[in-house]
C-alpha cells in the first residue's frame, strides 16, 4: 500500500479562529504561489471553533484552487490544540504553519520545501517575518516586536543554538511531522494555566519547540521564506499589550522547565530572584516615564510576572495533582 505521506510534498496548515475577514487574502496569496509546478502540495484550514463564515469561505475557494484545499473543525479552543490537530490531519511529512494574518511571499511554499531538502536534520525552521503596522508602534517597540511574532534575524540562514534560550514563534514555521510526533507530547496539561483571558495559549510555541530542540533535531531560521504579519491598531493598545506581556511572563517558568528533570525545579527560584532584581532596576530607571512610555511599561510587566511565574506553576501543578472530590 502506498503511504499518502509519500505522495504529498508539503502541507500548508492554517489554524484560524473567526478568520472570515483575514482568511480570504491569505488564500488568495497561496493561490498565487510560484515555483510550485513540480510540487504536490495541499492547504489545510483548521477551524478552531469559529462561529463565523470560515467554513463557507474555504468551500468557496476550494472550487478554484491550484492544489487540494481541505477543511477540518477543531472544537478545543486554543492555538496548541489547533496545531496538534493540523499535525494529525496533514498528508505530508513537511508541514508549514501560516496564521491567518501572516501573508507569505509568492515563493514561500517553494522556499519551504527547498530548505527541507537541503537540511535533513532540521526538525523545524522559521520564516523571516516583517510587520505591517496599521498604526505607528510605540517608541522603542523594536525591543519587543519579537513577542508579536516579528522575526528579523538578517538575510542568511542561521541555527538556533540549543544553549541559548531563544526560539521562534510557530507563525510561519515549517516542521517535520515525524520530529513533532517524536518529541512534542500530544497532551500538555500545562496549557490549562497558560491560557490567556481571550482563550489563546501563551507560551505553547516555545514549549513545543523546546521539546524538539532538546532532542537531536535542529531548529533553523530560513530568511528565504518571507512573510508579512498584519498588526491591527487594537494589538498596539495599552491594555492589550500590558495583558499580553503579563501572560508571557506567567508562561516563563513553564517554558524554562520544559524537558528538565523535576529535581531542578527549585532552580526556578534563582530565575525568579534575578527577574525581581531586573524589575527593580527597570522601575528605578523608568519610574517617571511608565505612564507615557508603553514599551518600558510592557518590559516591566514581563519582568514582574516572570518572577511570579514559578509560584503560579507550582500552584497549578498542585491543583492538578489533587484528587477530585466524590459527588
UniProtKB/TrEMBL annotation:
Alphabetical list of InterPro entries matching this protein: Glyco_trans_2-like, Glycosyltransf_2, Nucleotide-diphossugar_trans
Cited Gene3D superfamilies: Spore Coat Polysaccharide Biosynthesis Protein SpsA, Chain A
Top-rank taxon, per record: Bacteria
Every Glycosyltransferase 2-like domain range: 11-135
Name of the protein in question: Hormogonium polysaccharide biosynthesis glycosyltransferase HpsE
UniProt lineage: Bacteria, Bacillati, Cyanobacteriota, Cyanophyceae, Oculatellales
Amino acid at each position: 500500500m502506498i503511504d499518502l505521506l509519500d505522495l504529498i510534498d508539503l502541507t500548508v496548515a492554517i489554524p484560524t479562529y473567526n478568520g472570515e475577514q483575514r482568511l480570504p487574502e491569505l488564500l488568495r496569496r497561496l493561490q498565487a504561489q510560484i515555483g510550485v509546478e513540480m510540487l504536490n502540495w495541499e492547504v489545510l484550514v483548521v477551524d478552531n471553533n469559529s462561529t463565523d463564515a470560515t467554513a463557507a469561505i474555504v468551500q468557496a475557494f476550494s472550487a478554484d484552487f491550484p492544489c487540494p484545499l481541505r477543511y477540518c473543525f477543531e472544537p478545543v479552543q486554543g492555538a496548541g490544540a489547533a496545531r496538534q490537530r493540523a499535525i494529525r490531519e496533514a498528508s505530508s511529512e513537511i508541514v508549514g504553519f501560516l496564521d491567518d494574518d501572516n501573508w507569505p511571499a509568492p515563493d514561500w511554499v517553494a522556499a519551504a520545501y527547498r530548505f527541507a531538502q537541503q537540511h535533513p536534520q532540521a526538525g523545524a525552521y522559521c520564516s523571516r517575518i516583517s510587520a505591517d503596522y496599521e498604526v505607528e508602534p510605540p517608541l522603542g517597540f523594536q525591543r519587543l516586536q519579537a513577542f508579536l511574532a516579528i522575526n528579523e534575524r538578517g538575510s542568511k540562514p542561521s541555527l538556533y543554538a540549543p544553549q541559548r534560550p531563544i526560539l521562534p514563534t510557530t507563525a510561519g514555521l515549517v516542521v517535520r511531522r515525524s520530529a513533532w510526533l517524536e518529541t512534542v507530547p500530544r497532551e500538555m496539561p500545562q496549557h490549562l494555566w497558560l491560557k490567556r483571558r481571550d482563550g489563546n495559549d501563551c507560551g505553547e510555541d516555545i514549549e513545543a519547540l523546546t521539546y524538539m530542540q532538546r532532542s537531536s533535531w535542529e531548529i533553523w531560521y530560513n530568511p528565504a521564506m518571507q512573510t508579512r504579519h498584519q498588526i491591527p491598531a487594537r494589538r498596539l493598545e495599552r491594555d492589550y499589550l500590558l495583558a499580553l506581556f503579563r501572560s508571557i511572563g506567567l508562561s516563563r517558568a513553564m517554558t524554562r522547565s520544559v524537558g528538565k528533570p523535576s529535581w531542578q525545579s527549585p532552580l526556578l527560584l534563582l530565575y525568579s530572584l534575578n527577574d525581581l532584581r531586573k524589575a527593580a532596576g527597570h522601575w528605578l530607571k523608568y519610574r517617571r516615564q511608565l505612564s507615557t512610555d508603553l514599551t518600558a511599561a510592557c518590559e516591566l510587566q514581563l519582568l514582574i510576572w516572570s518572577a511570579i511565574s514559578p509560584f503560579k506553576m507550582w500552584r497549578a501543578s498542585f491543583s492538578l495533582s489533587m484528587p477530585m472530590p466524590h459527588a
